[in-house]
Structures are given as structure tokens and as C-alpha cells.
Amino acid sequence: MRKPLNNRRAIGLVLIAVTVLNMPFLSQKAIAADILSIGFENASERQGNCGTGGVFCAAPYVAVRQVGPYINDASFCRSGSWCSSHVLAGGLFQANMDHDINMNSLPYEGHYWHAAWRFPSTFRFQTGDIDWKAMLWESPQYRLYFNFRNNPNDKTRATPAFCIRNCQTAADWVYGSGGERVMTDDKWHTVEVYTSGSLLQMWYDGVLEINTTAANLTGVVTEWKVGTYQNGTIPFNETFYVDDIQVSTQRIGGSDPTSSPPTEPSSLQVR
Ligand SMILES: [Ca+2]
Questions:
Q1: Structural domain that includes position 121
Q2: pLDDT value at residue 127
Q3: How far is the CA of 85 from the centre of ligand 1 (A)?
Q4: Average per-residue pLDDT in the chain?
Q5: Fewest 10 Å CB contacts: which of 117, 224, 225, 241?
Q6: Mind listing the pLDDT tens digit for each residue in 160-210?
Q7: Peptide bond into 107 cis (omega under 30)
Q8: Domain assignment present for 171
Q9: Are 146 and 133 in contact (CB under 8 A)?
Q10: CATH (domain of 155)
Q11: 15 lies in some domain
Q12: What pTM was computed for the model?
């Protein structure tokens, strides 16, 4: 026969509920980043004055080619009211459209790198090159890529992939455990990368998909590019969207496109 709740049990259950509801993994949106945060919410962020303490993003970070116009629509953007569109002109070759951020020689070690993309249903990856570089880290020694490596036979699909060393051989690449997926679902998707020496981790939509200690992420980052950097040809006029470009010493989080309900902890007991 089930015993009625006494006061202590009731208080315990309330405390557990409050704790679970406040857990960061329930957050749909990215939380604050302590080094860099570009949510495009004000003119300063849209113009590139995006760092803290005037240290970062002092140089213009706008793309090699056109970025924009900026979108002002809270029902569409991932955070706040504003996000960035990247307009690709059909037929363009090597359309490099990045938020090109001066990181002022920030060390790789101990940093989380985050951004969100949205590809509308009409979007198609470029032709002639499967690698659509979504994040690039430039350092005096090398450049590293996070790519949406697309399917040459289906330009709606791609696999999140990371070049962990010098990007010259297949062994330099690691792939998200979720494998190839449809990218053109018109939903926001987040990528968060943690770099520290040999350790590289990548969360896609809040799920840890790459977790390797075979990386070589030492030294400093002079430039960090977010958006697209590619060698192929754009098939036709099209647009994709970016929001919440962030760098932090703490996990940023976010669980697009839908927040999963938490799994009930099995070890908790009400005493
Ligand atoms: Ca925003």
C-alpha cells in the first residue's frame, strides 16, 4: 500500500523538481559567453564591437564577400530579435562569407566556440567541393576547420566533420557520431566546440558527437571565421542564417532544434 507523502518527502520532491528545471541542459537558447558574444542584437554587435573589455573584435569582422542584410524578426532568429543572413549569389565560385573575428591571439586551450546556423528548405550546398567550411581557426602555425561535409549526390545533406591536425589526409578528419543528416530543415542548429591541446569535443544541438584526444590544438588563434568558406560554386541564389556566435571559458549549451525532456536521475532518493 502506497504511503501518503509526509511533509519532508513533499519538500524533497519540490526541491528535486526545482533543481531539474534549473539545469542548464534544459535551456533552449545559448547562455552568456564570457569572452565573445555576437547575437546581432544591437548596432554595436552588428558593426563588430562584440568582445568584452574592448579586447576582441576591434577589427571589422565582416566577410570577404557580402554578409547580410541583418534580420530583425524575433519569431525567426534564434536569440533576441536579430540574426545575420548570408546571401549567396548563384554561379559564384569561392564564395567566402564569414564573420571574420580578430581573436587577438586567444589560446586554443580551454575555450568553447559556439554558433548557430539555419538552412531553409530551398538551400543546397555548392557544387564541385563537398567541404563547406563553417568555422575556421587561423593561427600562425596552421588553420583548422569545422565543416559541414556534404553529400555529393544530395546537396541537402551533410556530416559535421572536424579537421583535427593539418587537414592533408583522411586521418586528419573526425566525424560527428550522428553521421550524415538533412541540413535544410529550416530550423536552428547549434555547434559548440571545445579546444584544449589534444582534446577536441564537438556538441551538435547540445549532443556530444566528437570527443577525441587525438587533436593538435595548441598555440593561439589569431582569427576565427564563422559562416561559410568554400571552394565550390553556388548552384543558384540562396540564403542561410547565423546567430549566437560566442566564445567562452565555460560550456555555452543550447539544444536546438528541440529541447529534450531530461532523463530522471536514477540515483536520487527521497529520504
Ligand atoms: Ca540574435
A1: 30-248
A2: 80
A3: 11
A4: 79
A5: 241
A6: 999 887 777 888 899 999 999 999 999 999 999 999 999 999 999 999 999
A7: no
A8: yes
A9: yes
A10: 2.60.120.200
A11: no
A12: 0.79
